[in-house]
Amino acid sequence: MKKRILLTSFDIWLKDQQSNSSDNLLLEVSKLDLIPDNLTFLRQLPVDV
């Protein structure tokens, strides 16, 4: 059985933030050609402060 991996990031939550470093990282990883099939990306999850 192949394990599945979920990679997540959160949306920005402060008005002065331009981006979220975890989301930036996921964006760059998603651009790679050699992404395994068992990776799932869930980007910019909403934040309720």
Describe the structure.
There is one protein chain. The chain has 49 residues and is α+β, with helices and mostly antiparallel strands. The protein has one domain. It contains one helix and two strands, in the order βαβ. A two-stranded parallel sheet has the order 1-2. The mean pLDDT is 88.
In short:
This protein has one helix at 21-30; strands at 5-10, 39-45.
What's the oligomerization state?
single chain
The percent range for helix content is: 10-25%
Which class best fits the helix and strand makeup?
Answer: alpha+beta
Q: What's the main sheet like?
A: 2 strands, parallel
Rg measurement, Å: 13 Å
Helical segment count? 1
Name the shape in a single word.
elongated
Give the beta-strand count: 2
- Order of strands across the biggest sheet? 1-2
Kindly state the mean pLDDT as a whole number? 88
Taking the alpha carbons of the first and last residues, their distance comes to 38 Å
**Tally of separate domains:** 1
Question: Element order, helices and strands?
Answer: EHE
| Low-pLDDT runs | none
Strand content: 25-35%
Which characteristics define this entry?
49 residues; alpha+beta; 2 strands; elongated
List the helices and strands and how they pair.
Elements: E1 5-10, H1 21-30, E2 39-45
Parallel strand pairs: 1-2
